[in-house]
Amino acid sequence: MHIVIDQSSAVPPFEQLREQVIAQVSSGDLAAETKLPTVRKLAADLGIAPNTVAKAYRELESAGIVETRGRNGTFVSTHGDPAHRAAQRAAADYASSIRRLGIPTDEAISLVTAVLTER
């Protein structure tokens, strides 16, 4: 995990940390089950307050990106990155709507393909 906090940025440090962890999970640089540094260790490494790291970790956990396993630490969630989870929910909602409308599967796929390839 490589995090850099820009103290001169208008973006608060907890948000910089949160965004960088999300980006690293999305890119695969932080794989599922990767153990994150402790709050105190990461705070010391980054030169920020432990409460700042704790706030970022809480928000990441609320979003399902990381999970805390008590005294064992904080790990990247096995549930995938948030963009893919949102896409899966959107796909499930679409499929449900298509079924209600009685549209055949191959036609529904053609509709999606046409929309995704529009410029």
Structure description:
With 119 residues, this protein is mostly helical. The chain folds into two domains: 13-76, Arc Repressor Mutant, subunit A; 82-117. The chain contains five helices and two strands. It has a two-stranded antiparallel sheet with strand order 1-2. A hairpin with a 5-residue loop joins strand 1 (66-68) and strand 2. Helix 1 (13-27) crosses helix 3 and helix 2 packs across helix 3 (50-62). It is elongated. The mean pLDDT is 90.
What's the number of domains? 2
Percent range of helical residues:
55-70%
Succession of helices and strands: HHHEEHH
* CATH superfamily label of the largest domain: Winged helix-like DNA-binding domain superfamily/Winged helix DNA-binding domain
Head-to-tail CA distance between termini: 37 Å
Q: Mean of the pLDDT scores?
A: 90
Topology:
Blueprint: H1 13-27, H2 39-46, H3 50-62, E1 66-68, E2 74-76, H4 82-101, H5 105-117
Antiparallel strand pairs: 1-2
Helix pairs in contact: 1-3, 2-3
List the defining traits of the structure above.
two-stranded antiparallel sheet, 2 strands, 5 helices, Arc Repressor Mutant, subunit A, single chain, 119 residues, 58% helix, mainly alpha, 2 domains
State the gist of this model.
This protein is mainly α.
